[in-house]
Specification:
about 280 residues; TIM Barrel; eight-stranded parallel sheet; two-stranded antiparallel sheet; binds NADP nicotinamide-adenine-dinucleotide phosphate
């Protein structure tokens, strides 16, 4: 598996996303994902499935060190002390001693960022996480967080797919050596997967539209992706996305989709996104 190297972390370029999967389904699908070769699993305290993810990891044949596990701390738990307590709870549910990556799930204005980043550094110092990072951070927030952090931040997990131009925040991440993990890399199956720029190469190459969408994401510099599926037969397909014979013309048509500006995840508490 190709890895994205970021400030000391080696992040497998494809991970399995688990949002919306309950404990039982997460356990089944993460077990199946590990079986077909996934070595990167993405969960969060907010997903309510860390117990199921942990159960799958416990019964899998892999050594703990061979699987890259990410969890995230919800935005109402970002104060000193509560962030560490939330992380301890996550580890308990996951039945793990550490995660590979602990992320702030969303920024908040309720707690000073310096306090949150200090608590996140403490999580790393205590050995609860090998690496730390953020999610849904804008360029300005990334600059601030980097300035506050003793340990390097390795990842900004953001919505990233062909129909959304994220070049501004991507450039900021790159400048700080921070990798992007693309969430909603399939735009949750919305307009992206039915657009001719995706369906035409899929048909020509006899692959799925999901594979074309993922191929585009993984051709971007410094970007890993964490597609989710609830269908076991799609697991292997979504890993087989590195060597598709997409032509330069087809790639150009995919690149042009970023003018669409489709943002799938945009809750009321989201920050003021970068304009690209
Ligand atoms: N940090 C954050 O704030 C944040 C926000 C959103 C998501 N995430 C993370 O990112 C992960 C991925 O994002 P997401 O789950 O929102 O959306 P996504 O991965 O973009 O899309 C999932 C959808 O795509 C469909 N799909 C999967 N493989 C396919 C294929 N090969 N062909 C066609 N359709 C396919 C799935 O349907 P089936 O189930 O029927 O296959 C599902 O409806 C999440 O699970 C979560 O771990 C993080």
């Amino acid at each position: 598996m190709k890895t994205i190297n970021a400030n000391g972390a080696k992040i497998p370029a494809i991970g399995f996303g688990t949002w919306t999967l309950d404990d039982a389904k997460a356990e089944r699908m993460v077990s199946a994902a590990l079986e077909v070769g996934y070595r990167h699993i993405d969960t969060a305290s907010m997903y309510g499935n860390e117990t199921g993810v942990g159960a799958a990891l416990a019964t899998a044949g892999q050594n703990r060190d061979d699987v890259f596990v990410t969890t995230k701390i919800w935005h109402d738990q970002l104060g000193a002390g509560e962030l560490q307590a939330s992380m301890a709870k996550s580890l308990d549910k996951l039945s793990l001693d550490y995660v590979d990556l602990a992320l702030i799930h969303w920024p908040t204005e309720s707690v000073p960022l310096a306090e949150t980043i200090a608590a996140l550094n403490d999580v790393k110092s205590q050995g609860m996480a090998k690496h730390i990072g953020v999610a849904n951070f804008t360029s300005a927030l990334i600059d601030e967080a980097v300035a506050f952090s003793d340990a390097p931040l390795v990842c900004n997990q953001i919505e990233y797919h062909a129909m959304l131009n994220q070049s501004t925040v991507a450039a900021t991440c790159k400048a700080h050596g921070i990798a992007i993990t693309a969430y909603c890399p399939l735009a949750q199956g919305q307009a992206l997967l039915t657009h001719p720029a995706v369906t035409a190469p899929a048909q020509r190459l006899a692959v799925s539209v999901g594979q074309i969408a993922l191929y585009w994401v993984l051709r971007q510099d410094n970007v890993a992706a964490i597609p989710r599926t609830s269908q076991p037969q799609r697991l292997a397909q979504n890993l087989d996305v590195f060597d598709l014979a997409v032509t330069p013309e087809e790639m150009a048509a995919l690149d042009a989709l970023n003018a669409t500006g489709l943002r799938v995840v945009n809750p009321g508490f989201a920050p003021d996104w970068d304009i690209s």
